[in-house]
Write a structure and sequence with these properties.
CATH topology: NADH Oxidase
Number of strands: 10
Largest sheet: 8 strands, antiparallel
Number of helices: 6
Number of domains: 1
CATH architecture: 3-Layer(aba) Sandwich
CATH class: Alpha Beta
Structural class: alpha+beta
Shape: elongated
Helix content: 25-40%
Radius of gyration: 19 Å
Strand content: 15-25%
Oligomer: single chain
């Protein structure tokens, strides 16, 4: 884990405490196996699998995990102002509006947000593409489920990390998070995540259509409240 240089508060008008980007170079978590099986369509007590099928899935999960390198970045940003249709963040000497009625309602009355981003890396994406396009379609589907659920779980890990930090300040983090592309929080907002989190440092870029690359990369925002 490393923190990038902290911005100069004076450049933001001296009104808000500006926090640096915290980069997590190597996030280590337990594989969320129950979530992986659920994504694959398995339902406890309903879905029946043979011992051979179960062993095949477990082997593929292990292989997928060996290809995944979880990295992440997060940053606390102050909310300068808000209304029912948008939240305006103060960052890097200026203001950025996140336009979304749903997001504004989700964040409630807090005065900060936590922006997060994480990636499973390019190796697992290459393996998925090769398997699905070749003769190992089943393994490719399992790899896809492992990558999706594991990178999502890495955001849980980042949130838990910041909950500990915020507790020392008598502040709290919302239980849930919200991502661009849901509801009226348009995918174009990914540009703000990439810029504020400097996601290129963990190998994540953005296409012209605002899709994160590598594919198994995610961003989200959570609210911060308290004194």
């Amino acid at each position: 884990m490393r923190a990038l240089p902290e911005p100069d508060p004076a450049k933001a008008g001296g009104l808000f405490l500006m926090h640096p980007v915290t980069v997590f170079d190597n996030i280590r978590i337990e594989a969320p196996r129950e979530r992986i099986y659920r994504r694959l369509g398995y339902r406890r007590g309903i879905t029946r699998m043979s011992a051979l099928q179960d062993a095949e899935v477990d082997t593929s999960i292990v292989q997928a995990l060996a290809l995944i390198r979880l990295q992440g970045a997060a940053r606390r940003l102050p909310i300068r102002k808000r209304d029912e249709a948008q939240v305006i963040l103060a960052a890097d000497g200026g203001e950025t509006a996140l336009v979304s009625r749903t997001l504004a309602g989700f964040l409630g009355g807090g005065n900060e947000v936590l922006l997060m981003g994480a990636t499973a890396g390019s190796a697992i994406v290459d393996a998925i593409r090769e398997d699905v396009g070749g003769s190992h379609v089943t393994r490719g589907v399992i790899f896809d489920a492992v990558a999706s659920e594991t990178v999502d779980a890495s955001l849980d890990w980042i949130m838990a990390y910041f909950r500990q930090e915020l507790r020392r300040e008598n502040k709290f983090l919302t239980d849930k998070r919200y991502s661009a592309g849901y509801g009226d929080f348009l995918l174009e907002n990914q540009r703000s995540f990439v810029r504020f989190l400097d996601l290129q440092r963990i190998g994540v870029e953005l296409t012209a259509s605002c899709v994160l690359v590598p594919e198994k990369s995610v961003t989200a925002v959570a609210g911060i409240g308290g004194r």
